[in-house]
C-alpha cells in the first residue's frame, strides 16, 4: 500500500487526475477531477494481456492544439515504437504499457515481463554515510557509438553500467577496481529527448526507454546491492516534458516570463533571474489557495520535501528485519544556493556543497577565493564546517557532498578538471589532479567523483560552457599506459583509504603546520581523534609550483614525533 491514494487506485484501475476538471467519476473519498476506469467496465471487459494506451485530453498547454492523445503520467513503461504525434518539436507521445492480470493493472516491460523488486542490500555490508564515496554517472556515457547524431556519441545503457562492476564480463570492471561504494545514476527515469542524458524527465515511473527496461535496471541494482554498494537515483523536479504540460498546464506548470512577480518563476540562487525550462516547462510548485496556514502549506518551509524524506525513511525501515540504521540512510538535496537550513530542519540529510568546488579549484592553482586568504581558503576546504554559507554552517561532514566536478559544467571554473587546468596554463597535469583528489578524499564531507575524473578524462565534443556536457566517458584513456593509468591507481588507493580508514570518517581536524617560508603554500593537517591507540591520518600538501629542497621536509608539529612514530 502507498500513502498516496491515487497510487493505490492505480493498481486497481486506470486513473487520470485533472484538478481543473469540473467533475469526477471516482467514489468518495476522491480527488477533485479524478477520472477512473476499471478494466472490467470496458465493453467487452479487457482480457488478461499486455495493452498499449493513451488518454485523450483537451490540450491546455500554451499552444492549445485541441484534442490530443497523451501518455499516462503514471505509466510504468512506455513504448516509443508506438507513438502519437503532438505536432510539436518534442518527442512524440509514446504508448503507455500495462499488463492486465486477474482484473488488476500490473507493471511490465514492453514484452510483458513483470519486474520483481530488486534485492535489498545486506545492511551489514553497506557503508555508513561517513565512509561513502559516491560515483556520479549519466548512464548513456558508459559507451560511445554511432547513431543519427554522428560517431563517438553516448549510447550507453543500464547493461553497460552493469559491466563496469561485473568482474565476469570482458574488459576491465573499472568501477569495481576503483572501489566506490555508492552509485548515483543521473535521471534513470524516462526523458522525452531522444538519445540525450539531460534533464528532460517526462515519465517519472518508468526507466528511460533508450537506456533499458525495468528488468535491466533491476539487474543493475541487484548486482551492486549484492556487492554492498548503495544506489542513488537522481530525481529532477524543476522542469520536464511530462504529459501534465498538456493535461492541466496552469495547475502544474508556469511560464516564468508571464509571471515575473511569482517567486516560483525565479532561480533560487540568482536574484531575479528567471527559471529555464530547457525545452520543457518549469514546474509550478504552488497554485492558488482558498485559505492559508503557514504551519501546513507554506512552500518556504519545504514541507513537500520533508514528506518525501519521511516516506523514504519509512520504506527503508520496512525493507529489513534488523533495526534501521540512520547512518546508512541518506536523502541528498542538489540546490546550488546551498540552503544549509534545509539540513538543520531535517528536510534533507545532506546538500551538495557547491562552494567547496570553487575553493578546490582555486587552491590547486595556488589562489585564494571568497575574500579569504590562501590559508583560510584551504582550511575551509579541508573542514567544511568552518565555511559560513549564507549565515549557516554544516555541523558534520555527513551533511556536505563535496566534488571536484559535477554534471553542471556551465560557467566559470566548472568544466572537466583536465580542461580547466589546460585553460589555466597548467602543464604538469598529473600532480595537480592528484592534489585535487587527495583533498577530495581526505577532507571533511562526503566525496563524490564525477564519471571519468578518476583518470582525468577530457571533453572531446561539447566545449560550450553554456551547456551541460554531452560527451561519453572515454574509458579507454584509463588504460593509456601513461600518467592517466597511474592517476587511476592513485585515486583507487585513496578511495580504499577513505572507505576503510576510521580517521577519515570523523569530523575532527587540526592544522599542524603552515610553512611561511613558502608563502604559506605547504601545509599539514591531522584527521581523526588521537589517543586510545587510534590511527591518525596526516596530510601534507604542497600547493606551490616547486618541490622542497633536499630529501625531506620537516613538519615541526608532527603527532607523536618525540616518540619516534
Automatic annotation (TrEMBL):
<feature type="domain" description="Glycosyl hydrolase family 13 catalytic">
    <location>
        <begin position="139"/>
        <end position="498"/>
    </location>
</feature>
<dbReference type="GO" id="GO:0005975">
    <property type="term" value="P:carbohydrate metabolic process"/>
</dbReference>
<dbReference type="InterPro" id="IPR006047">
    <property type="entry name" value="GH13_cat_dom"/>
</dbReference>
<protein>
    <submittedName>
        <fullName>1,4-alpha-glucan branching enzyme GlgB</fullName>
    </submittedName>
</protein>
<dbReference type="InterPro" id="IPR017853">
    <property type="entry name" value="GH"/>
</dbReference>
<comment type="similarity">
    <text>Belongs to the glycosyl hydrolase 13 family.</text>
</comment>
